[in-house]
Amino acid sequence: MGLSDHYVAALKGSIYQLDASAVIVDVSHAIRAFDIAQASFCLSNVYADFPKGTVHVIGVDSEPVINSRDGSYPAVMLYDGHYFVANDNGLFALILKENQPEGFWLIDDVLSNPAGFKFPTKNIFVPAAVKIAQGIAVDTFASAHDEWKRAFTQNPVLEENLIKGTIVHIDHYGNAITNISRELFARFEEAPFTILFRKRDYYIDTISGSYNEVQPGERVAIFNNNDLLEIAINKGARGVNGGADSLFGLHTGDVVRVEFTPRGSAKTIDSLF
Question: Which pTM was predicted?
């Protein structure tokens, strides 16, 4: 929703009207409009830092679509001890991945409140979220359901001696975060490797433990706090001396290849191209 309009303040004011003692924490108001993939990435990497029982309100692509085969309905999900209130537009599936929730409900009486469709995050999600935070049982205002809308997501491709991943997020510093996990990387044990991106000359063949293991201005690859492979520039940042995105021309959706070279399979960098 951004911060230049009144929308975020309206949400907070509505929460305080319903519960003056509520504790509100902003996660992000800079998700690209309707981009549930970016929203799920952001939320998946932060929700566990909050206490169990926290209620997360997600107002991305929030308008319900009723009476349609591919419709979406306001819903509540309980997963890993946390409550998520959002439109069932594929977002829940992206958060869950292959896991199952502890509970899933569709919010009742949506059709009896047509005005709610004009600002569903405020008029539908917030009242439900406050009830949950106050300890009111979800099944008193929502109906249990055992299906949720699926969504397409890009997963790393694993081939012989190769992981083909994708940049899924560019952060504030211009660091390029991929969907290649430490766990997936570890399947190749300790074979030498080369991380390739964009151009022939852009490669990294070492995983560092921190940014400062290379000199300022040098390219670096690390597994970040969420154990995802990240390509960065030490001391690089947007608006300063350039982050990895601007210096290497990286964008969300770009392919990142990790080519492993078990003993005898390659002698030089040139043989990898």
Answer: 0.86
